[in-house]
Amino acid sequence: MLELKNISFNVSDDLGEKEILTDVSLTLEDGKFLVVTGPNGGGKTTMLRIILRLLQPSQGQVIFRQDNKLVKELSIGYLPQKNMIDHRFPINVEEVIASGLLSVTDMSAEEQRARVADVIAQVGLESHARSAIGNLSGGQLQRALLGRAIISQPRVLALDEPLSYVDKRFENRIYDLVSELAPRTTILMVTHEMSRISTMANRHLIV
Fold first, then answer.
1. Closest by alpha carbon to 103, among 91, 112, 90, 92?
2. pTM (2 decimals)?
3. Residue 59 above 70 pLDDT?
4. N or C: which end of the chain has fewer CB within 10 A?
């Protein structure tokens, strides 16, 4: 479904140029569950953002395929790290989750409202549906972002540290959600530590 070919990524600062990734090649087949594990600062999130085409590699290329044909983009749901979100942005939970349907064109307004309500219930935020994201706890915001990532039922689900900030009760719910999605979704998850969710994967990449 996707392929990295000889990816390298460098950054420059006052001390010179630093290599974050060097000559990384990887294939991810349709329906697989890949976990990328390694220490903080190892380049896991950088690699994920290159796959999502949010960063341009210094060298190499990212290739997408669908039904054995080259395509320019894939349907991808993305759960970023919480620290990449601007809490001051004037948007509530319901709007955050609904934004995951912006690229979906074959649903009526009524169907979209029903889907949003279902996903809000899935992530346990019924009582916070109209709350501004600036008023949420870290775990609540993480759940809203997860809802946005899964609402379109994407072919690929990219999760960057999905267990960050969530409490143990909802951590178990994330296990259940990922388990439900895995049979019909290609999953790519980045984490700095092994956990129960990692045992669900059928491929592991250590950075």
1. 112
2. 0.89
3. yes
4. C
